[in-house]
Backbone:
């Protein structure tokens, strides 16, 4: 079970889960039966294609209709006003699922480190995300993003070896003495904003802030620091992100996160040898090795479209319908 929690929580459970996940590496799960036509394939305007599926009250609920492959169960929860519904993977909101790219977009909580006027001290609220033992890994479109005027934040993860990196964001005052004048919209190179890449295969991370870098002395200009692993493909830094609560409020406390997913933990060559678990079951489908750790995904062959994980001719890979000119 993935864990999305404040990094202030005990890490013992995280490493126990990691140990259990490592024990299962190499075992190919059996292919589930064909999903029922009764399965819900949409939630809140988001398409939920197989191997994903809406299941019971929680992702680990029994799935009598085989709506999802193991690890791909989502829930369709009521959120907001007017009875709106949103798909979730545990407590992570799912925004989009792509079969062809083998990716899903989710929302991740932003870690904060803010000055508290009442206590005249700093209040850290760091977050982490544990996806070990699941089909998901953080995509390389994500970068560890740190926002602030006097901030040093660290990202720690479990990879082939222990992984730790950090990012510093500062606002050096110009000749007029105002740190805000050094900031520039669109620039994330260390002045008010810093970003760093992550290694491939990463499926766990947590954030921490260095207490030696805080906003106690500049809280009237920049009260908070922020850090999050986020998709930066559409990110543009704004100067107000570093001096006002703009970054947190713009994203509603959660930033977009892209995860790569796989349907097996073997290479395509190895997976094809076991027809009972091989997931590319549609005619005119092909297997693609993952570029982000072990495993594979399926695509329809060139000139075909549909779902390569389904055998039935109606929803599997098929040639597009021709239209008369």
Residues:
């Amino acid at each position: 079970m993935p864990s999305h929690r404040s990094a202030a929580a005990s890490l013992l459970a995280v490493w126990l889960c990691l140990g259990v996940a490592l024990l299962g590496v190499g075992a190919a799960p059996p292919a589930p039966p064909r999903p029922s036509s009764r399965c819900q394939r949409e939630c809140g305007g988001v398409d939920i294609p197989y191997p994903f599926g809406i299941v019971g009250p929680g992702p680990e609920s029994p799935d009598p209709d085989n709506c999802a492959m193991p690890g791909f169960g989502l829930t369709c929860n009521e959120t907001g006003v007017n009875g709106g519904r949103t798909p979730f993977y545990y407590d992570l909101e799912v925004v989009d699922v792509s079969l062809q790219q083998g990716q899903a977009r989710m929302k991740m909580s932003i870690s904060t480190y803010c000055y508290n006027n009442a206590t005249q001290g700093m209040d850290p609220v760091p977050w982490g995300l544990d996806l070990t033992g699941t089909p998901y890994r953080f995509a390389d479109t994500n970068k560890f993003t740190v926002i602030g005027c006097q901030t040093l934040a660290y990202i720690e993860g479990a990879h082939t070896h222990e992984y730790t990196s950090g990012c510093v964001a500062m606002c050096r005052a110009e000749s007029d003495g105002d740190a805000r004048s050094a900031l520039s919209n669109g620039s994330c190179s260390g002045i008010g904003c810093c970003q760093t890449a992550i290694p491939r295969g990463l499926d766990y991370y947590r954030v921490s802030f260095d207490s030696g870098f805080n906003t106690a002395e500049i809280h009237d200009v920049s009260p908070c620091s922020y850090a999050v692993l986020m998709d930066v493909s559409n990110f543009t830094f704004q100067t107000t992100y570093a001096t006002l609560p703009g970054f947190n409020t713009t994203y509603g406390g959660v930033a977009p996160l892209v995860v790569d997913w796989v349907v097996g933990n073997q290479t395509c060559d190895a997976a094809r040898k076991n027809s009972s678990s091989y997931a590319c079951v549609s005619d005119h489908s092909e297997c693609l090795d993952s570029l982000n750790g072990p495993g594979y995904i399926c695509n329809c062959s060139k000139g075909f479209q549909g779902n390569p994980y389904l055998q039935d001719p109606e929803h599997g890979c098929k040639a597009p319908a021709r239209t008369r000119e």
Residues 7-29 have pLDDT under 50 and may be disordered. The longest strand covers residues 150-158.
